Amino acid sequence: MKNSIDTRLLDRKEELRLDEDWKWDLLEISDLFWISIILSVSLIPFFYAYKDKTSISLGVVLSLLLVHFIQYFLSFSEKNIFSFEPIEIFGLIPALMNEGIHFHRFVTAAWLHADWIHVLSNILVIALVGVPLEQRLGARKWLIVYSLGFIGGNLAWIFTHPDSMNPAIGASGAAFGLLGAYMACWPEDKIEFPLLFLIRAWPVWLIVFIRVGIEILQIYSLQVGTSGETNVAHMAHLGGFFLSYISAKIIVKDVHLMSYGDNSRNNLGEISKQMKEELMMSLDNDPWSINGIELEENVSRILNKLREEGDEQETRRAWLEELAEQTICPICNGEIVAEGKNNMYFLKCVKSDKHINWP
Predict the structure, then answer these.
(1) What's the predicted TM-score (pTM) here?
(2) Is 53 left (phi over 0), alpha (psi -120 to 50) or beta?
(3) What is the pLDDT of residues 212-266, one digit of tens each?
(4) CA angle 35-37-42, nearest 5°?
(5) Cα gap 338→327, rounded to integer Å
(6) Are the CB atoms for 125 and 99 separated by under 8 Å?
(7) Distance CA 299, CA 306 (A)
(8) pLDDT tens digit sequence for 158-185
(9) Disulfide: which of 64, 149, 228, 300 matches 174 by Cβ 3.0-4.6 Å?
(10) How many Cβ atoms sit within 10 Å of the Cβ of residue 164?
(11) Sheet order of strands, 336-341 included
């Protein structure tokens, strides 16, 4: 893995089939076919993440991988028998971005990558940093931060290279944007990350200090001419980082999340009793009693223990998990599971959230 997670500029082996007269209606049927395939595989993981209420950050990882599989398939033949190059249509080309017809490139460029090393290095950051950040932010705010990252990276590259016809691609701006948001709100959190030749839990501020420091050093080396040519858009990395960093605290308006977000191993015992009560939902009206269902003795005992000891986060989580294993949904008699979001835990029915979502 290289020292920088890179948004790459591809070396152009031939002139792009793009000019000021480029129009969507000039595309051939085969082009439209591959465009529909790429759009479909990029969106399917988001659909299932929303449908199954699973991690949106892992959905992004799968989306990026699927799109790169299509890229790899299209480039598998040296003769390019399919005569379709996604980068021509979806890559960010600064010189063309003053025309509205190319506006889609601000978004689509973040789904294309130069090679397997490029895409794997990006999804490594998105997975390792994105998953714990999503647990902090929730899916919607996480998506906003992620989007700000690649938009900030694209804008930074356009402003610094306005006349370039080289296509910029990659989700590196978004990856650095996740680091920027994490640094702004929870710099003391520790996350598993490969750094200094070790994979261990490092504080976010240290990861950022090293990664952003490397980017600044490399930009300086390019400016003073002490390094050779590069196909890495370092300025885009910084653009994604700083836009998300500046915007993060505006997006994260939840004072409670910010107040106890000093460490990934939060100790709610350090929070005031009043704040705990505000964070914890009431356990009084359980869904089984409301639906007139008499619980078995062992289940009733677990429920009572939950009410007695559930004022602490980890204790509540343990008893909710135990309760989920011992009982069923009061509506459909289906399986229930204990889930967590933003460090809060609750029971839900695997078939429908409308059946049970308690407390």
Answers:
(1) 0.68
(2) left
(3) 998 888 887 776 555 556 677 888 999 999 999 999 988 887 544 554 444 433 4
(4) 95
(5) 12
(6) no
(7) 11
(8) 998 888 888 889 999 999 999 999 999 9
(9) 149
(10) 17
(11) 336-341, 344-349, 357-358
